[in-house]
Amino acid sequence: MKTAAAYIRVSTEDQLEYSPDSQLKKIREYAERNDINIPEEFIFIDEGISGRRAEKRPSFMNMISLAKTKPKPFDLILVWKFSRFARSREDSIVYKSMLRKQCGIDVMSISEQIGEDKTSILIEALLEAMDEYYSINLAEEVKRGMNEKFSRGGVVSQPPFGYKMGNGVFVPDENAAPVVKMIFEDFVSGTGIRKIAKKLNEMGIRSVKGNKFENRTVEYILCNPTYIGKLRRSPNGRENGDRFHQSPDTVIVDGKHEPIISNELYLSANDKLRENKKRYVRNAQQNNADFMLRGIVRCSSCGSTLVQAVKGKSLQCHKYAKGQCEVSHSVTISKMNEAVLEKLKCDLENCEFRFEIIKRYDVQNDNINDILLEKEYKKLERVKEAFEAGIDSLDEYKRNKARIHNRIAELENAAPPPAEENVAEKAAAKLSDIIDRLSDISVSENEKNTLLRSIISSIVFDRENMTIQIKYLPVF
After folding, report:
1. Is 180 in contact with 227 (CB distance < 8 Å)?
2. pLDDT in tens, the chain (476 residues)
3. What is the DSSP secondary-structure string of 374-422?
4. Do 194 and 257 belong together in one domain?
5. Are 194 and 317 in contact (CB under 8 A)?
6. Residues 6 or more apart from 323 whose CB is under 8 A from it?
């Protein structure tokens, strides 16, 4: 008696296809008639998931992973239709080929019986091509229907913050709608977007997805015409980078829902947004310049990177600028540059960086190669386990095994590590040279940044105590 796995999928777009229970019933009936056993643990169901991309189907991927184990757990995979296995010909070819050649497992459709002669290959390919055409055509029809519904003022998206879904129409949320009005009024009155986001977070208010408010969340609300009774949609889908639907292809129509704010308030807010954007563009050209500490200095409160602010003359916590950090870490770039140089010189004089160097070689047997060799032998055991579990193919196992053996040979033939004193002396000499180059005005800011990154992992700035902590790389 053969053992089989049953794969069942119901997509969101197929309204008339069999339910999961119906598909399983048909598969069980077929298995019983053909003396095939289907254990309960070999029933895989993806419900409400499209078949266009295999990696988006968890049960499918679990089935494929199990099929690769040795010995093979089942002889074939039964599906109601080939379209349930995959709607993409590429996925179908890749996974069917892998199952047959590497695992000795066939995929069989119980409702689309094909023979075992060479013409069956053409028939199966034709069925898969028809399924893919159906999927693409259905997606186009759904998009066309949504555009038509939208043109008549119908709702084709989830309600934004401030609304909830009623009987096919947006309805103002009694709790969130007043918040929307407050956001617009605060902004028009002169409150900045960052301060508004911070205020909302302090009030415990969260976005539709349950996240804290950021600058972009507030800006999205301010430029959304839904709040004055309109609906907007990009017929061809929103383009990358068009977060706020500013593309000329965006269509705005009259909706059937109740506005939350007046037209006058909305227009005032958007006029102010446009003015701010113009000022931001002028300043952004100056903020893009390289500087020595770019991407290295971090906030002591939240750990975020300090970025350029105030026309590129200062640094500020990235999350503070977005309203997500409570503590300002504003500091001029020139002052931070001086502080870092002084700290480097002080660490060099006091040999503070030596602790990281010694730690690298602080092993019981004074031979780092023994530690590295032990790690490589453990890797060898893991790749063997991966092969025996069916995670890696035989070719993958051979490649990984050869690579690790080469590394073991290198370590066994390597010279012993240098003495700690020699390492410390070389590191001190390198740090001294870097300090000199950081002080040289002829060296570019980008080159100085590269030099710092060669010896430093990060610099933590504590604004309250006006101190910095330099975290050196283990060996530089």
Report:
1. yes
2. 899 999 998 875 444 456 888 889 999 999 999 999 999 999 999 886 664 555 678 888 889 989 988 899 999 999 988 777 876 666 777 788 788 888 999 888 888 766 565 566 666 666 666 656 665 665 666 667 766 777 777 777 889 999 999 888 899 999 999 999 999 999 999 998 988 998 999 999 999 888 999 888 999 999 999 999 988 877 665 555 556 666 667 788 888 899 999 999 999 999 988 887 766 544 344 444 578 998 899 999 998 899 988 777 899 998 887 777 888 999 999 999 999 999 998 888 877 664 444 444 444 444 556 667 777 887 888 777 776 666 667 777 788 888 888 888 887 776 555 555 566 677 788 888 888 989 888 888 888 988 888 888 889 999 988 999 998 876 55
3. HHHHHHHHHHHHHHHTTSS-HHHHHHHHHHHHHHHHHHHHSPPPPPHHH
4. yes
5. no
6. 193, 194, 195, 196, 197, 198, 200, 201, 212, 213, 214, 215
Model-level pTM?
0.43
- Give me the domain span that covers residue 80: 2-141
Residue 358 lies in a domain: yes
Of 267, 284, 301, the residue at which a domain comes to its end is 284
Q: Sign of the C-alpha dihedral, residues 116, 120, 121, 125?
A: negative
Residue 244: strand, helix, or coil? coil
How many structural domains does the chain have? Answer: 4
Q: How far is it, in rounded angstroms, from Cα 193 to Cα 214?
A: 9
Separation between Cα atoms, residue 468 and residue 127, nearest integer Å: 66
- Alpha-carbon gap, residue 188 to 108, rounded angstroms: 64
Cross-strand partners of 462: 467
Question: What values do phi and psi take at 74, rounded to 5?
Answer: -145, 165
